[in-house]
Amino acid sequence: xIDLTTLEGMDTAGKVRSLCAKARHPDPTDPTCPQxxxxxxxxxxxxxxxxxxxxxxxxTASVASGFPSGRTSLDIxxxxxxxAVAAGADEVDMVxxxxxxxxxxxxxxxxxxxxxxxxxxxAHLKVILETGELVTYDNVRRASWLAxxxxxxxxxxxxxxxxxxxxxxxxxxxxxAVRDFRVATGRQVGVKPAGGIRxxxxxxxxxxxxxxxxxxxxxxxxxxxxxxxxxxNDLLLQRxxxxxxxxxxxxxxxxx
Amino acid sequence: xSDRLAVRKTYKLYVGGKFPRSESxxxxxxxxxxxxxxxxxxxxxxxxxxxxxxxxxxxxxxxxGATAYNRGxxxxxxxxxxxxxxxxxxxxxxxxxxxxxxxxxSTVDAAIDRWVWYAGWTDKIGxxxxxxxxxxxxxxxxxxxxxxxxxxxLAPQSSSLLGLVSVLAPAIATGNTVVLVASESRPLPAIxxxxxxxxxxxxxxxxxxxxxxxxxxxxxxxxxADVNALDLTGVAEELAVSLEVSAADTLKRVWxxxxxxxxxxxxxxxxxxxxxxxxxxxxxxxxx
Lengths: 256, 288
Prior knowledge:
Chain B: It holds the Pfam family Aldedh. Chain A is α/β, with parallel strands linked by helices.
């Protein structure tokens, strides 16, 4: 259920390759350790990731549409999206235009999402709401609804570049939105909290919230993802703790 | 005028520069040498130990990266602040160990002097155990001591202050960080020392002090993969072997317990400094 992510200006091919290796075998000493759901990178790294992950079933996600600020013209956003899909990404993470949203221009936000959805074609579209900039829960709910109406396959809390990133209450609002959306339209939309989830304990809190709010249908990598790279390390430490009976340490997992 | 209400003290743990209660919510009664109530101390759990190791690990980079000279200043500052709390330390030692006031005073003096002694060693140990090695080739070959990392210390059970300082100060003098389990029946001087450390420029997390049952906490420190060294000074004999075995499983440096508790008033020597050091050797080409 975890998306391993590297979205830094200083990403290198080597770093992305080692991240892919980690995605295939999160714990090299334990072959039973499950793979991650997807790798999320900038568009220029997509061909590399596609080649690295061939045949593993791990999805390749690319951010697009002027990530992380979303402050480019629609043409560039569309081109960005088409590029990522052409390079082989099967999931596209777009950001909404928060400026337009906050000034009340909901139609513009809607149309942009719809246009990018069309440009993404068969690729899964994740819509990043950047809840840290939306200020109120009402706005989060409204933006969620907008993203779902416009055709988003996933709604995602944050880019990871803005604090606060994902929080439990915000995620709950989004889960309620996808639940109500399915009741209203019959279409199921996924949720991805991203950023700020670092420990297994946090993750359990989220999973309980998913189960209690949206229901067990969402407890599946196709409908719920964590965008959290440091969470994976903590999970590995906890797995080692379970296997060996003693506390493990960061010397025993890859630091990325 | 009514009598003043007594201001009773809650003795807590010292983890990451803060004074939390035990995560378990437990506490235990600490008595003085005659069995009279002396205070309630937190009964630390394995989770407290784990939290303390996390805090200690976080502090490694800053503390080991500080210059040896700076660490010496900080250790001297501990002595300065401890000097200001002399009366309280004397009181604590009398209560805990049941010694006479004059004996307690000389113990406190010795404990404070020990901080000064180790403060002096921080920037000198490198010359003693490191140096330039003669090699048959065009290289400068230099060995320097590096701190081991996180040291788990099971403090001596009977010497509640001087023994405590004698095991703690050498470990942090060389740049290690410490998770220390205080004497089980005499923990109060350790908490007073924690209050001194908290106000004397020692960065939070460099020293973490737990109180509670040594036999309960020690196995978790011994087996913890993120603890790099273990001091068995204060463990019971029957526990020492199993602790050493689990320490070996995760490749820890081990300081073994002695049959009887050492005489802490003797000059300590540098063994405790060198135990928690690793030697780094650099080969540097000097051209032809």
